[in-house]
Amino acid sequence: MKLLIQNARILDPSQNRDEIGDILIENGKIAQVGGKLPADDAQCIDASGLCAVPGLIDMHVHLRDPGFTHKEDVLTGCRAAAAGGFTAICCMPNTKPVTDSPEVLHDILDRAAQADCRVYPVAAITKGLSGSSLNDFAALKAAGAVAVSDDGRPVECGGQMLEALKRAYKEDLMVISHCEDLSIINGGIMHKGSVSEELGVKGMDRASEDSITAREIVLAECSGTRIHIAHVSTKGSVQLIREAKARGVAVTAETAPHYMMMTHELLRNRDANWRMNPPLREQEDCEAVIAGVLDGTLDCIITDHAPHAAEEKANFETAPNGIVGLETSFAAANTVLCKQRGMSFSKLIEAMTTRPAQILGLPGGTLKEGAAADITLLDPDLVWTVDKTKFHSKSNNTPFDGMQLTGKAVCTICGGTITYQYH
Questions:
Q1: Cβ burial, residue 361 (10 Å; 0-12/13-18/19+)
Q2: Which of 46, 84, 149, 188 could be bridged to 204 by S-S, CB 3.0 to 4.6 A?
Q3: Closest to 52 measured CA to CA, from 29, 80, 24, 27
Q4: Residues 95-133, buried b or exposed e (16+ Cβ, 10 A)?
Q5: pLDDT band at 423 (very low <50, low <70, confident <90, very high)
Q6: How far apart are CA 7 and CA 21, in angstroms?
Q7: Does 304 participate in catalysis according to the annotation?
Q8: DSSP 355-383
Q9: Nearest-angstrom CA–CA distance, 129 and 160
Q10: Residues 291, 285: Cα–Cα separation, whole Å
Q11: What end-to-end distance do the CA atoms of the chain give, in Å?
């Protein structure tokens, strides 16, 4: 089957390419890029006014499968991903059983073979996410893991994390750190500040995130290894990462749109759909995170897509942390970074495609001829209102419901197959 994308703005940060032209897809691969190409017997897509970019990549997603499929499963999560313009996602290991063995990895990948999006599993650093004994990283990589993380909880012991960094580096696996000091958190459920005091609930001090971010940077620096800092939310962590990069530490980092757009003030409504971990913080943190994305301190935009059933989110104080984000991520990031703060559209696309592919060594993130035809057609100027009842995910725990955003995935193509079209 041939597909011909016509008259698109071809935007590929991996090649510094930005031009109007056509893209021909044959047998799941990008056959030709640029200029006016003959249609012949191809199915044509008129992309006038749209941007053709490498398929979006989200390196931080919770698919809840296996074990929590009432919240999400591989197939529904990938449908949501395709609807958000994603052609590849990395799923985190806090499943049941934990993704800490080749058997669980094989199970996930077997089901992902039928999904609308490529799935790259992240395996656990420690057995059962217990923080005790390290897993066999070589075996996990051989079974398909693209990184290791105990995301959902921190690796509490610094010595254990140092050993994990060394072993993972030997296997060329990235370590992704969930930076949280549980002794500082001590049962907190939202950002520690004036609003938590007003509501009479325990808060989560910035020091929890900042102290472990600093620890991970020191461990990577002293061992000559590398570290990726997950879901950065504080001004302190941004500055720590910025300074570490300046002195040559192999540290990369990510953040999510909600840490740029929302603050703890929104939790006055006592709605758990505004509760996540790390939590929404203060405006000065939002400004620091935005500045970190703009200057390249923070490499990637992720969602930390964390589905929960409505009944689980019903009680503000006891609800689990997390929000869904795959279907709003591009639009939210485009709105705050490009439309409001003047970031170049190319830089945003780089943060959502090329950089995550580079960091994890994934095959996507490019429109080079011969590459897999993972392509997203985006309308960066389409204004729409988020309606959680139209989500493709099983869950709709979102703080974006009813918000007007700018930018939409209009068509998602994964391996030459159209997996989503906006109507």
A1: exposed
A2: 188
A3: 24
A4: beebbbbbebbebbeebbeebbbbbbbbbbbbeebebee
A5: confident
A6: 5
A7: yes
A8: HHHHHHT-S-S---TTSB--EEEEEEEEE
A9: 12
A10: 10
A11: 23
* Identity of the amino acid at 245: K
Collapsed DSSP state (helix, strand, coil) of residue 202: coil
SS3 for 21? strand
Q: How far is residue 263's CA from residue 258's CA, in Å, rounded to a whole number?
A: 8
Distance of alpha carbon 25 from the chain centroid: 27
Tokens 């996540």 map to which residue? Answer: 276
Sorted by sequence, the CB contacts under 8 Å of residue 354 that are 6+ apart come out as: 13, 14, 54, 365, 366
Beta bridge partners of 288: none
The residue whose two tokens read 């520690």 is 192
328 close to 273: Cβ distance less than 8 angstroms:
no
Amino acid, res. 417: T
CB 138 within 8 A of CB 103: no
d(CA 410, CA 47) in angstroms, rounded, equals 9
Sign, CA torsion 37/39/42/46:
positive
Residue 212 to residue 215: CA distance in whole angstroms:
5
Catalytic residue among 58, 100, 304, 374: 304
pLDDT in tens, 327-342: 999 999 999 999 999 9
Q: What is the per-residue pLDDT across 65-109, written as a single tens digit (0 to 9) for each? A: 999 999 999 999 999 999 999 999 999 999 999 999 999 999 999
Choose among 160, 166, 280: nearest CA to 231.
280
DSSP helix, strand, coil percent of the chain (3-state; round to 5): 35, 25, 40
* Side chain identity, residue 393: S
Q: Where are the alpha helices (DSSP H) in 35-114?
A: 74-83, 102-112
Q: Which residues contact 342 (CB under 8 A, 6 or more apart)?
A: none
Full-model pTM: 0.98
Q: What is the Cα–Cα distance from 43 to 68, expressed in whole angstroms?
A: 39
Residue 320, classified by CB atoms within 10 Å of its CB into exposed (0-12), middle (13-18) or buried (19+), is: middle
Name the residue among 155, 273, 267 with its Cα closest to residue 203.
267
> What are residue 408's DSSP bridge partners?
379
List the beta strands (DSSP E) in 198-275.
203-204, 226-229, 250-255
CA distance 72 to 55: 22
